[in-house]
């Protein structure tokens, strides 16, 4: 079940807000400029489907975002517990970083934990199949796929060649919860 938890940046053991209501998650994230939506597939999707099949199932929503927000490219990423580079890939995004363009991810299946550091608060967003999160450019955040990753996500880009993590050097991510398998 999708979930939002909010903490003060200096109190990782004290939850200020916790909700699993998608409308409330969307409202609270919208207040800080983060997009949260839930999409329905236009056709049945199953693990292992070809990227073209996944994109075709969500073509209407993808086209809407590309038209309205200027995204230029779309792809599909799929990662499971058997992936030989899962530990390296996980470690890469566990430290706080930013991107110079929006990070837009739609979880077709599985789950991932986006944690956003905005002003003096930390927003922990557990995204599951059906959830879209849009993190604005230059937002401090980290991402955890767990030690046993399992997700399929559609990614949208304004410039896929320029999507690079800029690490902040802040160790804040090490003080907050990780995604357990």
From TrEMBL:
EC numbers on record: 1.13.11.54, 1.13.11.53
InterPro entries reported for this sequence: ARD, ARD_bac, RmlC-like_jellyroll, RmlC_Cupin_sf
Site description Important to generate the dianion, residues in chain: 105
Family matches, as Pfam families: ARD
Positions contributing to Fe(2+) binding: 97, 99, 103, 141
Cofactor(s) required for function per UniProt: Ni(2+); Fe(2+)
Site (May play a role in metal incorporation in vivo): 96
Cofactor note: Binds 1 nickel ion per monomer.
Major enzyme class: oxidoreductase
Keywords recorded for this protein, A-Z: Amino-acid biosynthesis, Dioxygenase, Iron, Metal-binding, Methionine biosynthesis, Nickel, Oxidoreductase
Amino acids binding Ni(2+): 97, 99, 103, 141
Catalytic function, reaction form: 1,2-dihydroxy-5-(methylsulfanyl)pent-1-en-3-one + O2 = 4-methylsulfanyl-2-oxobutanoate + formate + 2 H(+); 1,2-dihydroxy-5-(methylsulfanyl)pent-1-en-3-one + O2 = 3-(methylsulfanyl)propanoate + CO + formate + 2 H(+)
Pathway(s): Amino-acid biosynthesis; L-methionine biosynthesis via salvage pathway; L-methionine from S-methyl-5-thio-alpha-D-ribose 1-phosphate: step 5/6
GO molecular function: dioxygenase activity
Coiled-coil intervals: none
Oligomeric and partner information: Monomer.
PANTHER family, alphabetized: ACIREDUCTONE DIOXYGENASE
Family from the record: Belongs to the acireductone dioxygenase (ARD) family.
Main function: Catalyzes 2 different reactions between oxygene and the acireductone 1,2-dihydroxy-3-keto-5-methylthiopentene (DHK-MTPene) depending upon the metal bound in the active site. Fe-containing acireductone dioxygenase (Fe-ARD) produces formate and 2-keto-4-methylthiobutyrate (KMTB), the alpha-ketoacid precursor of methionine in the methionine recycle pathway. Ni-containing acireductone dioxygenase (Ni-ARD) produces methylthiopropionate, carbon monoxide and formate, and does not lie on the methionine recycle pathway.
Name of protein: Acireductone dioxygenase
